[in-house]
């Protein structure tokens, strides 16, 4: 097709025409008479061959392009090929449309013309190494697909071919004819312009091919010129009828398309990096206001002997070209070819780049000969060429920045997807395998990871590439965290500094996920993420926003219960010093971490954190961390808080929830008073600062706390009254003994001792108000239902004001506890004017209303000067037994009790007129309470002064048996109290006689005792008058005496006898008794005293022993020494009273002591028994009878009973402990007959000492 066009030169046309005529005559025998017999067969063969090779209407265009690229062009000319579709019959052959093909080559030669007139005789055969891409020799014949009469105009040649056999040769297709039409003027009129190109093909289009041509011409791919050797510009135009506007051809342009190739030479830097066998260029294709840039990599490979074929016998090297669309815009559809043999094939395998090589094609040029070893050799070299180009682009992309290439876009050239052409699959697989062996993965340089410097993986641009097996794809969210940290100059995690793998560039991982799947690039797994995060220094150096993103990442991308996460220091918290620490989930119970639900709540809880550290450890997540969480979306916040709770038990904490935790811990540790106290103070503080306002919620919470009483004991779930601490309450003055313990809680003073950080603001009064409002603590007088227990009361008890308050409280109680009332009634707490503290029942109110019957000094009158006016409390005082009103008999019991109390106390200073008024008042009100109590000392006898007392006008108390109203004989003035000599008021004496059983005169038994006492006194003289008086009474009452008394009297009785004119008493002899027995009278013994008849009939006196030796001083010392022991708590007055019972008591030794009779109950039956005694104290007779010892054993028994009698007589039988101790001491002293010096030594050994008062008393008694 490379023919030369000669414009208007007759000589050139003549020469060209002669060449055509020679071909017609020489080759086809035109002008001969005989035709070639093979012509019809050759015609049919050409027809079938063209039909089989070129089945597509547009394929002839590819052949024309190939021919144009093989043409020769003048230097300085931009090789161009143009297709013009014009609606005109340019050749005047009867068609409507004509296709004009214009090429600015140098023009046809004679050889070219001869090639057109032949089959398979191409001028380019054997010239592959010279850059020719055509070789079959039948390319031009493809135009017959659309035209019947193609015309070639070039370099003076104007040749027309016909598809029908000529009459002269019976051949078509290859027989040339000279074409006069169209002329050059016709062509210029059609296409416009001033000059025609050197070569023009005029192709009248068959009517059935017009529409396909109109559609397909404009579908030519711009990549068509990419791999051409020479053609730089390719254009297609559609023009209207040439008759429409002959003056302006441009106005006839209906449609156009133009592709122009621009080669951009590589920079010197690039050229220096390209091997000699390789070349690189940047090709820009301009197309319809679009532009596509390709990096074209060419690499020459030697042809292996195993891949040689005959058709390429002389070719020793093979050039492979790969075109990479750098701006990622291939101007083509997905169905367009990606394999070229300089011209596109029909192979569209799905490669992301274009391949061009000297492939062997099938005759149609639409496909490769895949069975050809030549093609196999080329295909096997493609992976190598790809890797060379790929690595060049990766490492030198900064030198290619002017071309618009981006580093990460280079990875789009990797054939990740499976190819649709199986025969090319091994190429793709081989590329992938080679990618795996090289450092092809771009590593992230902005995440702080360690990248080896200057290694093979480094590019000049500072990028680092590693093999796929060393690369790890990181989650984009985590990668972003690392990137932000690196930008903030935060040192990377330790794991990134010493790892053997490298993090893939994040953008690359995001844009090319399939690449990493194909290259088997692993993604970081959960353990690896945790290993990176396991860098406390890195975590703490992150900003709060970054740290929160780490938490979110782990939440969404880790297994909740992963073992590796359990020991990961992850959760931020503030320690006791305010430093940020990290908590591993496995320590969540040792270090509980909380998030302050309300920011200000953290302030107060933090103040208390150190206080509660031993019981409830609270570590807060830093406030700035919480703020960073809270600015994230609400749903994410909720999920994160839930996750933190699950893995590390991180909970929201408010003042309320902290208080609930304290309550729970207090409940668990019920006996921990310190915890309970601090918890109460926390609630107080929270209330004071306004965190927990007063209300039902606060009260319910505080009431769940245990309570601490004043002994430090802790009480849980107490429902009784609660009293405030003693220092702010009245109860200590009221409850002198803690008798309410168990029924009432007395709060500890510790409640008032708030921590130092509170004491400057919270005072005791505020604590008290808090306790009142929350737990209902109160003072004693606020209790409406006090415990029903006894309350011991000791005087002095209450002040006047307290007493008033107490009475008001008791009176206001809806239900007065019986035991409390009993305690008030039975305790001596009422302050009287002259009588100290008395029971209410012993006290008198408003004594002036008693009309003179009694005076203030007579009875305990309430001290109005101390209390003030108690009349408003008359009701409650009356219920307590106080005498509050005047009425007949009212107060008589109180007066009697007062007298009895004074008598019991041994009061020895009582005014006689006072005593008279007592007894007169009792007689007037017929008091019978003392009748039958003859042994109780209730009769005051004034004026008795003991020998040992230096005081005067002292009196004593006597019982009824010790008194008589009158002693007419005058014999008992030393033995009995003669009341008529003391009291002159007949009412008083009548009270003694009628109400207290005092005898009017001494009775018979008293005279018997008087006579026996006289008989015991050695040398005692008795007057005759005394004998007559005594025996006259004895005789009169003899029959009234009891048998026992008579027997005892007989045993002790002495008879009078006259010695030297004096009457004395002596033991009667048997003879005297016999003589006297005969003179018994009916009136009883001594009915009429006669010295010759002394004894009554049948009277026989018994022998009475003598007095024992004097051991009184040693016994007194032993008794006082024992009673003075401070452990017994006996006052000197009490000891004195006890000892004085031995005053004037005689100790007599007798033959025997009468038996003691008693009753024994056995098995429900009563048996009378008796016991022989060895000692007995007769207090009424002031005598102690002791049996004479018969032997050593008998002597021990006597000493034992004597010590017991004295101990019981002195102390009283009810005081068992004192009796036993004194008994033991006296028994020891009796062993040495109470010798005084021995007793002193015994007391010294027993660590017993007499007081100064005891020594004085003993000196008086001695």
UniProtKB/TrEMBL annotation:
Pfam families associated with the record: SACS (PF25794)
Recorded hits in InterPro entries, A to Z, give: Auxin_embryo_med, HATPase_C_sf, SACS/Nov_dom
Specify the superkingdom: Eukaryota
Occurrences of domain Sacsin/Nov (ranges): 54-156
Spell out the PANTHER family in the cross-references: ATP_DNA BINDING PROTEIN, WU:FJ29H11
Q: Which protein, by its recorded name, is this?
A: Sacsin/Nov domain-containing protein
């Amino acid at each position: 097709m490379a023919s030369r066009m000669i414009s208007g030169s007759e000589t050139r046309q003549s020469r060209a025409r002669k060449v055509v005529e020679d071909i017609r005559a020489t080759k086809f025998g035109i002008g001969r008479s005989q035709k070639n017999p093979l012509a019809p067969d050759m015609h049919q063969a050409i027809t079938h061959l063209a039909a089989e090779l070129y089945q597509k209407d547009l394929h002839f265009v590819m052949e024309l392009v190939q021919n144009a690229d093989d043409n020769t062009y003048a230097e300085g000319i931009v090789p161009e090929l143009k297709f013009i579709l014009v609606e005109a019959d340019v050749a005047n052959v009867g068609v409507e449309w004509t296709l004009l093909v214009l090429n600015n080559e140098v023009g046809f030669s004679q050889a070219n013309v001869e090639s057109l007139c032949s089959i398979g005789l191409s001028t380019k055969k054997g010239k592959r190494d010279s850059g020719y891409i055509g070789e079959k020799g039948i390319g031009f014949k493809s135009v017959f697909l659309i035209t019947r009469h193609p015309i070639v105009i070039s370099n003076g040649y104007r040749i027309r071919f016909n598809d029908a056999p000529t009459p002269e040769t019976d051949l078509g297709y290859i027989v040339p004819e000279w074409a006069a039409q169209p002329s050059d003027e016709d062509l210029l009129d059609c296409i416009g312009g001033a000059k025609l190109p050197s070569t023009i093909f005029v192709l009248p289009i068959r009517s059935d091919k017009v529409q396909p041509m109109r559609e397909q011409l404009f579908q030519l791919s711009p990549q068509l010129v990419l791999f051409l050797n020479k053609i730089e510009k390719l254009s297609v135009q559609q023009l209207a009828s040439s008759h429409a506007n002959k003056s302006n051809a441009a106005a006839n342009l209906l449609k156009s398309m133009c592709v122009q190739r621009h080669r951009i030479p590589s920079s010197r830097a690039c050229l220096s990096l390209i091997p000699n066998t390789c070349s690189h260029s940047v090709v820009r294709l301009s197309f319809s206001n679009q532009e596509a840039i390709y990096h074209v990599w060419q690499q020459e490979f030697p042809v292996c002997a195993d891949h040689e074929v005959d058709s390429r016998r002389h070719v020793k090297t093979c050039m492979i070209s790969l075109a990479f669309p750098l701006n990622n815009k291939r101007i083509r559809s997905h169905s367009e070819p990606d394999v070229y043999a300089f011209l596109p094939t029909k192979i569209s395998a799905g490669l992301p780049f274009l391949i061009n090589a000297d492939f062997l094609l099938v005759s149609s040029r639409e496909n490769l000969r895949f069975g050809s070893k030549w093609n196999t050799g080329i295909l096997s070299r493609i992976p190598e060429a790809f890797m060379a180009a790929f690595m060049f682009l990766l490492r030198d992309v900064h030198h290619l920045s002017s071309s618009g290439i981006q580093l990460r876009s280079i990875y789009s050239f990797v054939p990740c997807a499976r190819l649709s052409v199986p025969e090319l699959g091994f190429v793709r697989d081989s590329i992938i395998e080679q990618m795996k062996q090289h450092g092809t993965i771009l590593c992230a340089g902005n995440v702080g990871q360690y990248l080896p410097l200057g290694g093979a993986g480094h590019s000049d641009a500072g990028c680092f590439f590693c093999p796929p097996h060393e690369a790890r794809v990181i989650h984009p969210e985590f990668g972003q965290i690392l990137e932000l940290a690196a930008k903030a100059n935060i040192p990377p995690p330790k794991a990134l500094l010493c790892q053997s793998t490298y993090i893939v560039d994040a953008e690359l991982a995001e844009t090319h996920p399939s690449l990493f799947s194909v290259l088997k690039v692993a993604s970081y797994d959960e353990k690896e993420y945790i290993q990176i995060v396991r860098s406390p220094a890195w975590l703490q150096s992150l900003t709060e926003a970054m740290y929160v993103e780490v938490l979110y990442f782990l939440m969404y991308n880790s297994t909740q219960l992963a073992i590796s996460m359990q020991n990961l220091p992850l959760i931020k918290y503030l320690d006791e010093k305010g430093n940020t620490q990290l908590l591993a989930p496995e320590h969540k119970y040792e270090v509980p971490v909380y998030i302050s639900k309300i920011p200000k709540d953290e302030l107060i809880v933090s103040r208390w954190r150190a206080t509660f550290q031993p019981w409830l450890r609270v570590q807060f997540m830093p406030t700035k961390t919480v703020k960073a969480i809270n600015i994230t979306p609400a749903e994410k916040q909720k999920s994160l808080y839930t996750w933190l709770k699950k893995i590390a038990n991180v909970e929201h904490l408010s003042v309320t929830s902290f208080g609930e935790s304290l309550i729970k811990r207090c409940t668990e540790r019920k006996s921990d008073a310190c915890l309970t106290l601090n918890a109460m103070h926390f609630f107080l503080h929270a209330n004071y600062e306004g965190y927990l306002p007063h209300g039902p919620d606060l009260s319910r919470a505080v009431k769940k706390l245990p309570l601490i009483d004043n002994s430090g004991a802790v009480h849980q779930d107490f429902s009784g009254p609660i009293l405030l601490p003693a220092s702010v309450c009245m109860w200590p003055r009221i409850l002198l003994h803690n008798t309410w313990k168990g029924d009432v809680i007395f709060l500890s003073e510790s409640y008032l001792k708030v921590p130092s950080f509170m004491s400057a603001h919270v005072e005791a009064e505020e604590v008290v108000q808090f306790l009142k409002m929350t737990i209902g603590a109160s003072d004693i007088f606020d209790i409406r239902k006090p415990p029903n227990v006894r309350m011991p009361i000791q005087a002095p008890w209450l002040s006047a004001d307290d007493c008033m308050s107490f009475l008001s409280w008791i009176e206001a109680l809806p239900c007065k506890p019986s035991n409390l009332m009993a305690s008030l009634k039975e305790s001596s707490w009422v302050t009287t004017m002259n009588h100290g503290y008395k029971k209410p029942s012993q006290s008198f109110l408003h004594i002036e209303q008693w009309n003179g019957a009694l005076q203030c000094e007579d009875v305990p009158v309430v001290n109005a000067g101390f209390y003030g006016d108690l009349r408003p409390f008359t009701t409650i005082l009356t219920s307590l037994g106080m005498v509050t009103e005047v009425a007949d008999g009212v107060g008589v019991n109180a007066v009697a009790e007062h007298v009895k109390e004074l008598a019991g106390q041994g009061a020895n200073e009582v005014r006689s007129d006072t005593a008279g008024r007592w007894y007169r008042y009792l007689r007037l009100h017929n008091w019978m309470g003392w009748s039958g109590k003859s042994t109780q000392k209730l009769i005051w006898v004034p004026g008795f002064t003991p020998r040992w007392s230096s005081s005067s006008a002292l009196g004593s108390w006597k019982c009824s048996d010790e008194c008589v109203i009158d002693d007419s004989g005058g014999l008992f003035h030393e033995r009995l109290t003669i009341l008529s000599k003391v009291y002159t008021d007949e009412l008083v004496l009548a009270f003694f006689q009628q109400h207290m059983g005092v005898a009017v005169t001494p009775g018979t038994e008293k005279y018997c005792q008087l006579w026996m006492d006289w008989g015991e006194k050695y040398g005692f003289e008795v007057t005759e008058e005394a004998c007559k008086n005594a025996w006259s009474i004895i005789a009169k009452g003899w029959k009234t005496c009891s048998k026992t008394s008579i027997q005892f009297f007989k045993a002790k009785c002495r008879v009078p006898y006259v010695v030297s004119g004096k009457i004395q008493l002596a033991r009667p002899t048997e003879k005297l008794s016999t003589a006297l027995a005969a003179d018994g009278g009916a009136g009883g013994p001594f009915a009429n005293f006669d010295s010759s008849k002394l004894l009554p009939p049948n009277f026989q006196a018994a022998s009475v022993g003598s007095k024992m030796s004097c051991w009184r001083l040693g016994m007194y010392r032993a008794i006082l020494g024992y009673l003075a022991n401070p452990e017994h708590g006996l006052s000197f007055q009490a000891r004195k009273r006890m000892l004085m019972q031995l005053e004037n008591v005689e100790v007599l030794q007798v033959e025997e002591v009468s038996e003691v009779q008693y009753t024994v109950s056995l098995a429900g039956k009563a048996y009378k028994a008796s016991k022989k005694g060895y000692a007995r104290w007769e207090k009424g007779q002031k005598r102690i009878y002791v049996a004479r010892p018969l032997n050593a054993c008998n002597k021990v028994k006597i000493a034992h009973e004597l010590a017991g009698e004295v101990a019981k007589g002195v102390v009283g039988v009810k005081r068992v402990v004192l009796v036993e101790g004194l008994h033991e001491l006296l028994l020891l002293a009796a062993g040495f007959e109470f010798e005084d010096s021995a007793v002193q030594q015994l007391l010294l050994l027993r660590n017993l000492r007499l007081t100064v008062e005891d020594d004085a008393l003993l000196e008086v008694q001695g």
